[in-house]
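Q&A log
Question type: sequence-to-structure
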Amino acid sequence: MKRRRGPSFLLVIVDEDHRTFTVEGPMVDDTRWNEAVCNARTAGRNVRCLIAHSYATAVAYANGHGLRFCEPAALLCLNMR
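Response status: OK
Response body:
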């Protein structure tokens, strides 16, 4: 989902394989992250991303799905795991 204009947002990256999540942003363009997620999925990883408009929303979603927080740098190489 490419966004270059408009309000900024937070990108929640979910790694279902490891039951972790991280939050990136705020940002206005998530192209690079979407490409990384697509590459990881092609490689067999169960990862996805979604948009949140606040950290509270992101954390509430993650808590509701039993995910634990992971530092952003740990998910930088999605297709390397």
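Response note: The longest helix spans residues 31-42.
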